[in-house]
Amino acid sequence: MAIIGVMGSGANEWPALSEPLGIWIARHGFDLLTGAGQGLMLSTARSFTAVRERTGRSIGIVPSEPHPLFGFVPIAGYPNPFIDLPILTPLPRKESGAPDGALNRNYVNVLTSDIVIALPGGRGTLDEIRLATRFAKPLICVGPHGAFEGAPGDTRIVSELKEVFAFIEDLTAMA
């Protein structure tokens, strides 16, 4: 069973993309991996877990902060309530001032995913796109024109989910 990593905005849900994507992933028997936060991570996981006949799990890579007694604890708001399997990492989120090479939980998001799907997001999403390219993970981005400015030049960017579904089907048929 492939793990489909869905990366994107922690602020905006992008429901026209994230909800049908979560449902499709669940109905096709895949596991879903997100950053376990809000925005489209929440909406994708919510739609994924709403599919009763699903066999896959909603996996969330949870950023943390140091705690004097417990070592590390989840950052407030993590994981969202639609995560079946939260994975607490001692790695932080991609902070806005952090250099591009700074170690953060985006590495875990990308390296754990068999296929990476990027929806519109910010700097953290662009970091995940660059990491997927660096580590040769199958990657496709879906969203409106201009939503992925700053992505590597050869990044596959589409505007419709049917292209994402075909991409996943082609890759998983070969496995």
Characterize the structure shown.
By secondary structure, the protein is an alpha/beta fold. 32% of the residues lie in helices and 21% in strands. The chain has five helices and nine strands, in the order E-H-E-H-E-E-E-E-H-E-H-E-E-H. The strands form two sheets. It has a seven-stranded parallel beta sheet with strand order 6-3-2-1-7-8-9, with helices on both faces. Strand 2, helix 2 (40-49) and strand 3 form a beta-alpha-beta unit. It is globular, with a radius of gyration of 15 Å. The mean pLDDT is 94.
Write a brief caption for the model.
This protein has helices at residues 15-27, 40-49, 106-112, 123-134, 161-174, and strands spanning 3-7, 31-34, 58-62, 64-67, 71-74, 85-88, 115-118, 139-142, 157-158. The chain is an alpha/beta fold and 175 residues long.
List its traits.
globular, Rossmann fold, 7-stranded parallel β-sheet, 175 residues, single chain, alpha/beta
Largest sheet composition = 7 strands, parallel
Which oligomeric form is depicted?
Answer: single chain
Mean pLDDT: 94
Molecular shape: globular
Task: Indicate the CATH class.
Answer: Alpha Beta
Q: How are strands sequenced across the largest beta sheet?
A: 6-3-2-1-7-8-9
Summarize the amount of helix as a percent range.
25-40%
Q: What would you call the structural class?
A: alpha/beta
* CATH fold annotation: Rossmann fold
As a percent range, the share of strand residues is 15-25%
Count of separate structural domains:
1
What CATH architecture do you see? 3-Layer(aba) Sandwich
Topology as a string of helices (H) and strands (E): EHEHEEEEHEHEEH
Radius of gyration: 15 Å
User: Which blocks of ≥5 consecutive residues have pLDDT under 50?
Assistant: none
| Intertermini distance | 10 Å
Tally the beta strands: 9
